[in-house]
Structures are given as C-alpha cells and as structure tokens.
TrEMBL record:
It is an enzyme of class 3 (hydrolase). It comes from Svornostia abyssi. Belongs to the SurE nucleotidase family. This is 5'-nucleotidase SurE. The lineage of its organism: Bacteria, Bacillati, Actinomycetota, Thermoleophilia, Solirubrobacterales. GO terms for molecular function: 3'-nucleotidase activity; 5'-nucleotidase activity. It comes from the Bacteria. NCBIfam families: surE (TIGR00087).
Length: 272
C-alpha cells in the first residue's frame, strides 16, 4: 500500500518522525513523507494559490528522504496526488501525529484533520491522529511533554488492518490518543466545545494601528457521554468517523417548502 504521511507541525516534528518510523516498519507499506517546512497549526483547509510552492528534499536519519514545502498541509496532499514523487501516487493519507489533541469543534481549525479531509476529497481513505500531552490538557494548548509511542503503534496497526475496518467511502478516521497508557479504544462522535474568547487590546503601533488578541486560552467542553472529548478525558483512545457532507438534511426539506421564488420578483421587474 502506498501511504502518504503528512502533518501540520512541520517535517521535523517529533510526532511525525515517530509515526514515520512505525509505518516504515510495516510490511507492504510504500511510504512517502511530504510535510510543511515549519509549523502550520490551526491553518485549517488553507491552500496556496497565488504563488508557486517551494519544495526541497529532507534527509532522514534512516537514510530515506522526505519532502518539505513552504505550503500548507492540504498543499502537501495535493502535491502527492498530482505527482511530486515520480511514478508514485498515494492510496492512503495519514496525517500526524499532531502535538496536542484535535477534539470536538476544534477539528474545523486543525491542519492535521484538514490534510486527511483533502485525502477524502481526492477519493482516498485517510487517518488523522493526534496526541494529548502529558499535562492532559483538553484543548489546543500544548503541554511540554509528549509520548508518541503508543499512538504510533496503534496507527501502524490501524493501517495494517484498514481493509477489515468498516470505513465507508468518503470518510476519514479522526484518532485522539490520551496521555499515559490508554484504557481502551472507543468509537465516539464529535463533542461540543465551549469557547471563551475575548478581545484584548495589547498596544498601539506608530501610525495608530492597534494590536489585539481575539482568542481565549481556556476553552471548555460539554461533558456528554459518547463524545471524543469525554473518551479522551476518561483515558480512552477516541476514533471518530468524519465526512465532508455538511448538508443538514432535516433543514433541506423545510427550505424546499419556503417560497424563495418571490425574492426574485422585484429584481425581475427592475430588469424589465
């Protein structure tokens, strides 16, 4: 199986390197690594369209090479799919291991999850995997210590058995690994965040431009059983299926019965 490994913490990040070594040891995996040349955390599904991407080879300590780009995690997936590596095209996208969890509503900001979503968009199965720090934080703040070994082993086994996992087409697996020895693995839905953002004025520059912080650093979450947030808080690996279909089906029926046609009538009369 041809596996693309990428992330949003950068090609030198410890989480990616530990996972790279685990995946490279799996028989039958043809692994290529394409990742940002620096940290691109919380960049979401950003892409680079207004300039060419810079790409260079990076030598790893086991004698293999990867590719580092000044683009985004999504750019990395597109580079692989479009043929950056000669005679090689990915069959699976693996993004991670992210430094810090990607839980609940936070996944909409995550570059790690965005890379996996790009794989799904391109018709490929995908896995995003993230690691809680030893501080056991439940938000996007980073602790200063991580142990990626258990997550890397779990992800490698997941890839080995992917053909036997009930993963529908157009779906990725978002995996979050708790700090310490996991008590088990649960399939969980996305949880709900409680953001506590506020506007903080931090100073004024010459010319009158003001500086503000707009995000808080202590988000909470709704403690709902069956969610990824609850699972990781309890010490379990959370595995969540995610897809790109954002349509709210129940609302679609209500909208179809609304008289939108009349909103066109004034504009039609003006044209006449």
């Amino acid at each position: 199986m041809r596996v693309l490994l990428t992330n949003d913490d950068g090609i030198e990040a410890e989480g990616l390197q530990v996972l790279r070594r685990s995946l490279a040891a799996v028989p039958g995996i043809d692994l290529q690594t394409i990742a940002p040349d620096g940290n691109r955390s919380a960049i979401g599904r950003g892409i680079t369209t207004r300039r060419p991407l810079m790409v260079g080879e990076v030598a790893f300590d086991d004698g293999t090479v990867g590719y580092a780009t000044d683009g985004t995690p999504v750019d990395c997936v597109r580079l692989a799919k479009l043929g950056l590596v000669p005679d090689w095209e990915p069959q699976l996208v693996v993004a991670g291991i992210n430094h810090g969890a990607n839980l609940g509503d936070d996944i909409t900001y995550s570059g790690t999850v965005a890379a996996a979503l790009e794989g799904v968009l391109l018709g490929l199965p995908a896995i995003a995997i993230s690691q809680q720090s030893a501080a056991r934080e439940m938000d996007f703040r980073l602790g200063d210590r991580f142990d990626f070994d258990e997550g890397a082993r779990f992800c490698a086994r997941l890839v080995e058995e992917l053909d036997h996992i009930p993963l529908p087409g157009g779906t990725l697996l978002n995996v979050n690994v708790p700090a310490g020895d996991a008590l088990g693995v649960v399939a969980a839905r996305l949880g709900k965040r409680i953001y506590r953002d506020e506007l903080k004025f931090t100073g004024e520059e010459e010319g009158g431009r003001r500086k503000y912080w707009i995000y808080g650093d202590d988000p909470g979450y709704q403690e709902i059983e069956g969610t990824d947030l609850a699972a990781v808080a309890a010490g379990y690996v959370a595995v969540t299926p995610i897809h790109l279909d954002l349509t709210y089906e129940a609302g679609l029926q209500d909208l179809s019965e609304h008289d939108f046609q009349r909103l066109l009538e004034p504009a039609a009369r003006e044209v006449e």
